[in-house]
Amino acid sequence: MIITHFFGLLIVILQEICNTKFSVTFIITNIRKIKKMIKSLESLVDLAKGKDKRKIAVAAAGDYHVLKAIHNATEHGIVEPILIGCEDDIKRISSEIKFNVKPHKVINISDPYEASLEATKLISDGKADFLMKGLVSSRLFLKAVLNKEFGLRTGSLLSHVAIFETPYYHKLLGVTDAAMNVDPDLEEKIDIIKNAVKVFHGLKNRNPKVAILGSVETINPKMEATMHAATISMMNYRKQIKGCIIDGPLALDGAISEKSAKLKHITSNVAGEADLILAPDINGANILYKSLNFLGGATSAAVIMGAKVPIVLTSRGDSEKSKFLSIALAAAIS
Question: How confident is the model at residue 319 (pLDDT cuts 50, 70, 90)?
């Protein structure tokens, strides 16, 4: 399967050569890019280790599963944690999981919102590199993140990007947006794609293939999702959206199955080879996210993008491994 994927990418390169002046340097450069691309979530750990150790500010850190993930990430030498929350809870849980927090900074703030504000301020002051949500509601946490005085606004939309590794697909697969934007309009979908593409660039995939999902592959004026997909695809074709290859609308089978794409006679550079899937709305993305995790045997890592730094905001249902890998993902791309 890996060999098939390699030669598939090689064919794309050769197709580019047909439209470009032949260059041996061009071939060598692109083959090197293929080799550098992250092919598994475990490779995230190696990528994060290859960088300077990142400081992570954890808001309301007195949570068993969050501290387990932080402990794991610390053991791997990925992060230097700053733990903000109820100091007694942090120390009690850390003792239970045999996590020595004495070498690390602990800031005693019991109120979850105030702890989130302090974590955000640490990022704003340049004292931490990225942020993680602990035992605090997403609403309060994001209220602190978007604080007008020292929040992490950039003018861009915040969106959720998940990266999956599943035994049923030949490479990593991104899904967006399963957590933040309920029913994104055309402009919001463009921002969501740009945020997700930044993640793939951080994973050494310089030109990810983006499939915009629809229930059908044809453009139907009565189906807004297909109209959005067609517009965004054309914007990408005309270089208004760069750094990726976009096509849509594509049904899920056409996006990830080369066999289905052939049976449907879909002519596309993305069909059967998608790196990233943009769902029409939060319902579709969330169903796909949870289906991959709970039915598809997948492992995942996820971050919130669009702020000044990546944000680790995991679901209560996410495994400890997923939480750890999400930290590694944020460290790798920050």
Answer: confident
